[in-house]
Structures are given as structure tokens and as C-alpha cells.
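cron nightly-structures :: item 1 of 1
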Amino acid sequence: MTAILGISAFYHDSAAALVIDGRIVAAAQEERFTRRKHDHEFPQRAIEYCLSEAGIGPEQLDYVGFYDKPLRKFERLLETYLAYVPAGFRSFRQAMPLWLKQKLHLPREMRRGLGNQYRGRFVFTDHHESHAASAFFPSPFEEAAILTLDGVGEWATTVLGEGRGNRITLREEIRFPHSLGLLYSAFTYYTGFRVNSGEYKVMGLAPYGEPAYR
């Protein structure tokens, strides 16, 4: 048996998923248990749910994976803030406590969250590789082209790749600050909704609009 626990945390909509021998056994968002919308804390309850569904403990996990590479993301944040000094200082000051307390110490935080019972390896995948895997591996296709778009991962905002069997290869990428996802979030903010929360509302409102520019 090969058991892999996937974790998303400390940004928005924290979640956990458990895959055993290539099959998704359980997956859940932390907000379902805490009742806090878009809960970003460590998904303790979601993890407990996934493990209980499989009837295993943390010590029986073979791997624990995290959805991106935090050190590369931190590099982007530092470079971006430094490029806009002093204008970006307020945002920088707000972001740093979470990074210094938790995000830069993820192995420690995850081991602690697993009750110090897990002794295996932590795997940090590329952000867009995580998106690609969640789209390709559950699909019915043996081969497929893969396109992922979001706000931004470590540096990439759009990635083109391919999936074959049990492998994914990322071929091309568009990098920050060029991002359709961030542009969409900018319109979300402009129309009065919360970024990383209200984008679906903007999408829902779009069909009711009348085109002003042709």
C-alpha cells in the first residue's frame, strides 16, 4: 500500500486529500468542519477526516505533499516588494508575520499538525504541476494536453504541458506579472467583491451585462 496525503494551507481554502494506491480515498476543505469561510489555517480537521475514512494513522503515510514550493514563492514576493519600495511596504509588513511564523517552516508545521507521528518525507510540488495533476490524473485520458491558468503560483501564471500515463511534463509558461487570473481578480476588487472569494460572483453577473464596447 502506498498512501499519499496532500495538503493545501496558509493561503485560502485550506484542504486535504488522501490517495491510496492511485485512488482518491477522501478529500475535504477545512471550512466544512470549522464553518469559517475560506479558512486558511492548517487543515487539521480535514486531515483527520481523510485518515479516518481510510482507517489509518499519520504513521502509516508514505508521503505528505504540499501544493507549491514556498521558498520560490517567497523569492517572488521579496523581489516584487523591493521593486516597489517604499510603495509596497504596508503590504509587505502585513504579509511577513505569516511567512516568518509558518510558511517558511512548513515541514515543522506539517509534522506538528500530524501530531509528530509522521516520520516520512515531505514533497513540495510546483504550483501549476499540482493544478495539472488534479485535472489529468482523475480524467479518463491516457494522454492529454494540459493548460492551467490562475493568478500566480511560484512565478508562473499560465502553463502548457502534457500528460502521458502516470507522468506530467510542463512545456511552456507565462510568468508573473503577466496574468489573466490577476486581471480577473482586479476586476473582482474593482466591482466591490473580495479577491480570492468573489470571482465566481463576477462570473455569475457577467451574463446580465450589456456589451458597451465592440
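cron nightly-structures :: done
The first strand starts at residue 3 and ends at 8.
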